[in-house]
């Protein structure tokens, strides 16, 4: 199975603590790295996670609160010091390029690479990136300012050829692509060889959904339905539901309810309020609703769709 990993760089909320870094993650799909949010310290956490800076070409910012984007100036500067030449693409809601313009003008005049800003509409879902193996779209969320989550959808690959069988039936090389894509094979004598005898199914395509920051928002359940892994903010425990509603955040129980409603396979909760020195109360609350829940923590690596993780 091809690599599809989630690396947690930071899972705290706005108020700094000694326990957590602000929000940042990296999705590693087949050794292409995609950063999701870039709070302070993200570049340090990249080092600690042993992720290669050179493989990171796109950053996706969910919204323009500082705990989700204050790490960008330092990251951009470090890329320059490392001699980067490849373009860096930053996707965000409207306003980030304008916000960063003075900083770019003052500190980054001599960058050896281009920083390209791309804006997306937070009121509707749209595809913001696509390549041969991945489609990445926005998930409109419900927060105090325009905000989107992100859905990473792996593209389904063709069936795998059973080499022993294609050799046995002397299948010409030029027929292999058709067979991989589901075609049967007809021998020179007119015998029909069904595709199922020549191939085995590929692993199902995997999906990862990122939903932070947001109040409980039932409308997103349909878009993320069946995801292999969901990250959903769980800023507060249920006894702080009023505070969660006031600040447009979610409780751990609400995050778990979303996971259950969307029929996802596993849930990671994060974006913890600084008031919790022990997040086990949040984990217990979420697991009471959705047992397949784990706590985010710095440098946690979760294999999307693999039913496990490397550090849990």
From TrEMBL:
Zn(2+) 2 binds at residues 67-68, 213, 271. Pfam families: Anti-Pycsar_Apyc1, Lactamase_B_2. GO terms for molecular function: 3'-tRNA processing endoribonuclease activity; zinc ion binding. It catalyses: Endonucleolytic cleavage of RNA, removing extra 3' nucleotides from tRNA precursor, generating 3' termini of tRNAs. A 3'-hydroxy group is left at the tRNA terminus and a 5'-phosphoryl group is left at the trailer molecule. Residues 203-272 form the Metallo-beta-lactamase domain. Its EC number is 3.1.26.11. This is Ribonuclease Z. It comes from Bacteroides pyogenes.
């Amino acid at each position: 199975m091809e690599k599809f990993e989630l690396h947690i760089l930071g899972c705290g909320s706005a108020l700094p603590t000694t326990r957590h870094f602000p929000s940042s993650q990296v999705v590693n799909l087949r050794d292409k790295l995609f950063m999701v949010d870039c709070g302070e310290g993200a570049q340090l956490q990249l080092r600690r996670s042993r992720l290669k800076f050179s493989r990171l070409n796109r950053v996706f910012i969910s919204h323009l609160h500082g705990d989700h984007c204050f790490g960008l100036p330092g990251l951009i500067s470090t890329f320059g010091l490392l001699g980067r030449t490849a373009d860096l693409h930053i996707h965000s809601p409207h306003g980030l390029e304008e916000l960063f313009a003075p900083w770019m003008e003052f500190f980054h005049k001599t960058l050896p690479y281009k920083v390209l800003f791309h804006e997306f509409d937070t009121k509707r879902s749209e595809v913001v990136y696509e390549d041969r193996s991945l489609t990445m779209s926005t998930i409109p969320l419900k927060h105090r300012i325009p905000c989107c989550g992100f859905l990473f959808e792996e593209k389904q690959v063709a069936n795998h050829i059973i080499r022993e069988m294609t050799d046995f039936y002397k299948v010409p090389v030029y027929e292999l692509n058709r067979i991989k894509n589901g075609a049967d094979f007809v021998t020179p004598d007119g015998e029909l060889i069904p595709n199922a005898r020549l191939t085995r199914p590929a692993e199902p395509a995997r999906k990862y959904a990122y939903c932070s920051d947001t109040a409980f928002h039932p409308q997103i359940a349909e878009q993320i339905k069946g995801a292999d892994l969901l990250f959903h903010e769980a800023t507060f425990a249920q006894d702080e539901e009023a505070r969660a509603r006031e600040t447009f955040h979610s409780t751990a129980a609400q995050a778990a309810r979303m996971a259950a409603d969307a029929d996802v396979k596993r849930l990671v909760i994060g974006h913890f309020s600084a008031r919790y020195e022990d997040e086990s109360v949040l984990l217990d609350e979420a697991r009471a609703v959705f047992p397949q829940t784990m706590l985010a923590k710095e440098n946690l690596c979760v294999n999307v769709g693999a039913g496990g993780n490397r550090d849990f």
